[in-house]
Design goal:
The chain is α/β, with parallel strands linked by helices. The protein has 6 helices and 7 strands, in the order ααβαβαββαβββα. Helix 2 packs across helix 3. Belongs to the ANT/ATPSC lysine N-methyltransferase family.
């Protein structure tokens, strides 16, 4: 005969659930949490990879522009690499998480632009953005109000901000592209300042 299969009892299910929870926590603590340690809780933004369509929509709103391009909280680097390929140079990503910076550098190497793009370990709240002309923001709604104040204070009038998935609640976009989760919004700082006055 064949050995009989044993069904998981209540304790077995509990053990599987606990083991899964521990594995999820270990992954978070090892891979994702290092970038958050120095950031206040209300300003933390979880890593959510942007889809190819979101990246294409963001870059469509920057087509034909020039000047320094930055991605605030650049995650796995896909937007920075694509911005460089589109001719937006220099292209820089600011990311605190070391694992995501390693992934970004690997992505740049694979795309043939390693050393041409930069992924810097800098807190987006502390970096000076006064020399940036194209700013990409794929961040949660909770950080948009304080970030709007920082961008207004630092960016030149010629700068354009492109926001993915969530718009800036108090700004009127110059243009928009896409629909649903893939929608993106562009804001020209000169127009934003004019509306604020």
């Amino acid at each position: 005969g064949q050995p009989e299969g044993r069904a998981l009892g209540g304790w077995g299910l509990l053990e599987v659930a606990v083991a899964s929870g521990v594995a999820a926590w270990a992954t978070w603590a090892t891979l994702l949490m290092p970038g958050f340690r120095r950031v206040p809780l209300r300003l933390q933004v979880p890593y959510v990879p942007s889809s190819p369509q979101q990246v294409a929509n963001m870059l469509a709103l920057l087509r034909g522009r020039s000047g320094k391009t930055v991605d605030l909280g650049s995650g796995d680097g896909r937007i920075v690499v694509e911005a460089y390929k589109q001719g937006l140079r220099p292209a820089v990503g600011y990311e605190l998480n070391p694992w995501l910076r390693h992934l970004s550098n690997y992505r740049a190497w694979k795309a043939g632009c390693h050393g041409e793009v930069s992924f810097l370990k800098k807190d987006l709240w502390k970096v000076n953005l006064s020399d940036c002309y194209n700013v990409i923001v794929f961040l949660a709604p909770s950080v948009k109000p304080p970030l709007a104040a920082k961008l207004l204070a630092e960016l030149p009038d010629e700068a354009r901000v492109v926001a993915g998935r969530f718009p800036f609640p108090s700004w009127t976009p110059t243009s928009t592209h896409g629909q649903g989760l893939d929608q993106v919004w562009a804001y020209d700082m000169k127009e934003v300042r004019r509306a604020a006055q």
